[in-house]
Amino acid sequence: MTLKVDAIRECLEGVIPGIMATASPDGTPNISYLSQVQFIDGEHIALSYQFFNKTRQNILANPRAMLTVTNPVTAAQYRLTLQFLRTETSGPLFESMKARLAGIASHTGMSGVFRLLGADVFRVVAIERVPGESLPPPTPARNLLAALRAATERLSACSDLDRLLTETLACLDEQFGIGHTMVLMLDAPSARLYTVASRGYEQSGVGSEIAMGQGVIGVAARERTPIRIGHMNSEYAYSMAIRQNTEHSNLAGALETAIPLPGLAESRSQLAVPICVVNRLLGVLYVESPQDLRFTYDDEDALVTLAAQIGTAMHLLQNSADAGDDAPPAEAVPPPMKGAPLLVRYFPENDSVFLGDDYLIKGVAGSIFWNLARDHVERKRTEFTNRELRLDPRIRLPDISDNLEARLILLSRRLAERDACVRIEKTGRGRFRLCVKRPIQLMEEAG
């Protein structure tokens, strides 16, 4: 039986460097070690191009090469016959390899030395097993297909987005054994992602943001490709990315509206997977671990499949919420409110909202809350629908990909975390209630 590359993917994890053999046009051989071999599909791989060295010169002049890779667990070796096809210097493959190379460089103390110049794509002409003894493969800790099946069954039973997010992170923990996870949604107009759910952290970080292109999460979103790193990586650490982003923004030195992104202090393995539907980016599923090389190609495949299901479910549930009743239910008589008024402060320049001096939220979610509070104070309203929010010109929702349901979940969770006397309570498909326990006093601050 002819071996395919996907059958030996564990040899490409970078634990044991591959050995590359090339030859110059006059037949002079050259041997070199490779820091990174990237799986593309069953018949193609990519090698990192970092220096214009002898190997590089040879493959440009003579496109045939031999590569030996080793399974880090069984010590089995394989010899690959390669045909050089092209070099990519941008795009998903390049960005994925760049992120992984940065992780390898950080792990080996070579940060600043390793820099990816290109991804050299090769066709794998043949694979042969190198004769020799090897160890038996260990029994896997879990069956990923079974985990994926169980997760799929649980997620398919979710009837609203809030439940879908909660079940997704619970499945990753209970079925896949991944305890540190989060889901971020895209805010397309600002080209940023905001955390809408997390699990396994001391602080939830719900409402925290990161820009497209920053860190593992931002690069995965921008390139719409999974990014997997097996070693600690300061260049791609999202905590550094968010800090740098805040320092360079107009908010530096202003009122504190940055919510810290959740995350492990010393993350050793990271995997960010875009959540898409019909070629549209909805968000990113992110997992991490304090263990080196925690996530394999098989984990990546499983989470990419899971993210595809999450994307489809998000799309259907969003449409379902939009198809709710047009009119809100009749206003019920609210219970009497007690206590001192709650001061709600609104800053129009970025739609940020404070409860007294306590920051709540900003952006579209901030605009939603401010106008709900206004309607409650001025018109005594408590019952609302998604549809009227979408049509409300005061909120200025984007025309496409507004993720309204996700923004309401974000707002609801922020209110619950602040233990505010105002809550949002779902009352049906596309409907919700503003529950207010104390009088509200509105204050719109000057810009």
TrEMBL record:
For the GAF domain, which residue ranges apply? 160-324
Q: Which SMART domains match?
A: GAF
Residue ranges crossing the lipid bilayer per the database entry: none
Q: Pfam family example for this protein?
A: PNPOx_N
Instruction: Spell out the InterPro entries in the cross-references.
Output: GAF, GAF-like_dom_sf, Pyridox_Oxase_N, Split_barrel_FMN-bd
Q: What is this protein called?
A: GAF domain-containing protein
Question: Which species is listed as the source?
Answer: Noviherbaspirillum cavernae
